[in-house]
Amino acid sequence: MLNLIKNEWIKIFKRAGSYVMIAFILLGVIGSGALTKYFEMKTEQSSSNNWKAELTAQIKEDEKEIKKVPEIAKKQYKKDIEINKYRLEHNLAPSDKTTGYKFINDNKMFISFVGLFTIIVAAGIVASEFGWGTIKLLLIRPIKRTKILLSKYLTVVIFGIFMLGVLFVSSALIGFVLFGTGNGDNIHLAYMDGHVVEQNMIGYLIKTYLLSSLDVIMLTTMAFMISAVFRNSSLAIGISIFLLLMGANITQLISMKYDWAKYLLFANTDLTQYFDGVPLVKGMTLGFSIIMLLVYFVIFIALAFGVFTKRDVAA
Description:
By secondary structure, the chain is mainly alpha-helical. The chain has one domain (2-30, 94-310). Helices cover 70% and strands 4% of the residues. It contains 12 helices and 2 strands. The protein has helices spanning 2-12, 16-43, 51-65, 71-90, 100-106, 111-132, 135-139, 145-179, 201-212, 214-230, 233-255, 286-310, and strands at residues 187-192, 195-200. The protein has a two-stranded antiparallel sheet with strand order 1-2. β1 and β2 form a beta hairpin. α2 (16-43) runs parallel beside α8 and α5 (100-106) crosses α8. The longest helix is centred in the middle third of the chain and has 35 residues, at 145-179.
């Protein structure tokens, strides 16, 4: 199995596109750091001594607005109000300057690009074998089809983790070099089950990156399944990218009217809602979302392996 994974890994990095993907992530992080540093130096905002009065005014404003906004927006307002109240009660001034920790957190936006690149690899890793005709060379080996397909899937997952690691490490290096660690009081205020909880910033960032990549893993698995079933990388890429960009938004709109939205894939991929936020649909729990993700995962994997192992390959 290790040799099969090694061979697939070599195939990925024989393509120039793989290095372009890594370069894109690195350039994105560098560009983000340079722009943030430039605008921060240009504005040069100083910390306000009246932060308590400002937070008090913000709380009053939010309490007025929460009565006017739709139900789905009330969750965010309530979260902001409780966190601001906690800051006042515990004398925790909000930071108006970028730190290395904040920079890493802000760069979560690049996880979507990690997902995009991993989907492209997943969509092509099986379909391309059929397109190039090399699938026949693979299947004449005395190796089970399930083992061949599993090695390809594991390679895709490892590639996704590798890209996520590139993003996190590059963000940390550039962030701490350009912005430092702040005043040393680097805690994150999380909103869990209606209560504000202090969390270690590094632990929070690692957990958030890992949890935020779940939708990437699920979409990658789906793209891999489509690639194996339909032998069409374009179809796999198209459907997966559309869902990556629009899936969460569509699910959020449905959840505003229908409780059955909780059974949809994208209602459950964001597990951070249980550690730092409010569940999308009332009554949803961490255990429920994990079960739903496992159900979807088993369906995708069963389809991929079921079709691949039974389908005849034309001579």
